[in-house]
Amino acid sequence: MSIFNSLPPAPIAPKKPKQDTRHGITRTDDYAWLRADNWQAMFKDPSILDPEIRTHLEAENTYMKAAMADTAELQKLLFAEMKGRIKEDDSSVPVKDGPFAYGTFYVTGGEQPHYFRIPRDGDHKDEASRQVLLDGDKEAEGKAYFRLAGIDSSNDHSHGLWGYDDKGSEYFTLRIRNLETGEDLADVIENTGGGGVWAPDGKSFFYTLQDENHRPSKIYHHIVGEPQSADRLVYEEEDPGFFMGVGGSLLDDFIYIDIHDHETSEYRLLSTRDLTAEPQLVAERVEGLEYSMTEGGDVFYILTNADGAGDFKIVEAPVTAPGRENWKDVVPHTPGKLILSHMAYARHLVWLERKDGLPQIMIRDRATGEEHAIAFAEEAYSLGLQGAAEYDTDVIRFSYSSMTTPSQLFDYDMATRERTLLKTQQVPSGHDIDDYVTRRVFAPAWDGETVPVTLLYRKDTPLDGSAPCLLYGYGAYGITIPASFNTNCLSLADRGFVYAIAHIRGGKDKGFAWYENGKMKQKTNTFKDFVAAADYLHEQKFTSYGRIIAEGGSAGGMLMGAVANMAPEKFAAFIAAVPFVDVLNTMLDDTLPLTPPEWPEWGNPIDSTEEYGWIASYSPYENVGAKPYPPILALGGLTDPRVTYWEPAKWVARLRELTTGTAPILLRTNMDAGHGGAAGRFQRLEEVAFEYAFAIKVAGRM
Length: 702
Hints:
The chain is α+β, with helices and mostly antiparallel strands.
C-alpha cells in the first residue's frame, strides 16, 4: 500500500517443519520453533528466552517501528489528547467499612494508584485527613512492569494484605503491611493468584497458589509470621480443566472456594468457626450446572441455571443445609431476562439483569417481597453494580455511563429509593455530550438473527459512506462489551470516525442462548455476526467496505484472524491485540495454562475427532491462505500466560509467507509485559495511541 512507503525488507522467520499427527491427520507446523521449550521458567525470568527467538522478535519490533515511523508525532498528539481527558489527580469516593472508609487516588504524573483510608465519615477531598496505605508509584520504582492487586484490610483494620506482579506473567507476590506503621512484615508469599481472604481474627489468611503450568490448583492457609513453606494445604483441585478462587462473605462466617470452568461450577465452604476443618461441598459438579453463592444471614442466596433456567434464577437454601435438594426458587427464571450477578444484605436482595440488551438493577425487600428497578432511558448505556462492603446497610453503590455520557457514581438507598450523585467523571480538556451521537442499531445476520451494534460518532460526521470506522468485537466466554463512556475513542470520533461495537454471539448481550450459539460447534456464528455488522454499516452508509478497521483482543484477536481469512476484502485493516490465533495447537497442548479449562468453550481436539474438526475449520493460523490481506497489526506480550507470545509471532510469519498482497503485516511484542500490556495508566494510553495511530494512518486521516 502506498501509505507504507520505503519499508525495509520484512523479517522472514526460518522454517523448521514439525509434524503432528492426531486422529489420523498429519499437520506440518513450520513455525512451531517460536514456542520456547522453557516457557514456564521464562515467564518468571524473561532473560532466559532462547536467543534465536529473542532475535526474531526484536527484528519484528524494528520492522514495525520503521512502518510506523511517520506516525510518531501523531502518537504524541493522540497520547496528549487522551491524557488531557483524564483528571490526573483523580480520587475515588471511599467505601465505608467499619471505622474507616477506603479508597484510591492518583497523583499528577503518576502511573500507579495510591490506596488510602480516612475516618468513616471524613471528607475524602481533605487530603490532610488521608492515611496513605500503599503508594503504587513508590513500589513500582525501577521496574519495567508493575501491577498492583490492591490491598485488603483485616477485620480489625490493623493490617493489609497486598499483592503485585512485576513480570507481567500474573504470578503475584503477597505481602502483609502494618497499617499503623506502614512497614511490611517479613512474610513473602510467592506465585499466587493475586489476592487473599483474611480470617476474621486477622491472624491468618487464605490464598490461591499458581502451579508450574500457571493454574490455580491449590488453596493454602497462611498464618501471619510463619514461612510460606509451613502453610497448610486446604484444598487441591486435581482436574486441570477447572479454575479456582477463594473469597469471603460479608458476614465473615464462611470462606468460599469457587471451582469452575466455563459451563460447570462447584462451591466448597469453610466455616470460620473452625479454620482447620475440611471444606464442605455444597452441590457436586454436574456438567452444565452453574451456581454462585452469597450469604443472607440464615440462608444462602444462590444464582443458578439449574432445572433448565437458561437465563438463570435465584434460589435460597438454609445455611445449615445448602445442598441442591434444599434449593427453593426466590427469583424465578424468566426467558430473555438474564440475571448476571446478585448480592444480599440484611434487608434487601439485589441483582443485575439484562433484558433486550440493556442492564437494570433489581431490588427486593426481603421482608415484604416488593421489588423495584433502577433503570435508565438512553438507547444504549452501561451499569456497574458495586454494592457495599457491609452487610447491615440500606445503601449500595452503582455507576452509570453511556458512549456519550461520562461515568456517574451514585449511592442508592434501597429503602427510600433515593439516589445521591457522588461523582461525575471529569474530562479536564472538555467534553460536550451534545457534539456526539450514540445509537444502538441491529444488523441482520445470515440466519435471521439480528446483531446489536452500538455506535458513537460526532453529529457533524457525514453518513454517506465516506466516514472511516473502527469496528470492535470480542464474542467469547459470555462476556458482554458494555456501551460505556470511553474517553479514548473520542480521538477517533473527533477525526471523523464512526466508532462501533458489534455485540456478536459468544457474548451474553441477548441472553444466555446468545453465548451458547457462539461457542463450540457454533463458534463460526461469532465470525459471521461480525461480518454481518460490517455489511450493515456499509449498506446503511455509516461507512463503507475498505474504510472499516477491525479491532479485537485476546479471544477478540482470534475473531480478527478468522474474519481476516473469511472476508479480507471488506476491511481496510485489522488490529489484533494479544490474539488467540493458534487455537488448534494451543488446544492440543494440555500443558499450557488455559488449555484444559478452555475445552468447554472451544472443544477438546485431543479426545474428539469431531471437535478437532470444528477448531481446524476456523483456527486463524491453520487457515491463512494465499490471498491479499489488508494491513494487519498484531500485538503480543512476552510473559503473557493467557495468549502466549508465540501465537501472534507464528501467525504473522505465516501471513507474511502466504499473502499475495503488498500490505505490511506488523508484529509488536512488548518485551516487558504480559496479557494486559503495560500496567501504568499512562503507559497503557501510549499503547492505545499507537493502535489508533495505525488506524488513522490506514484510513488516510493523518
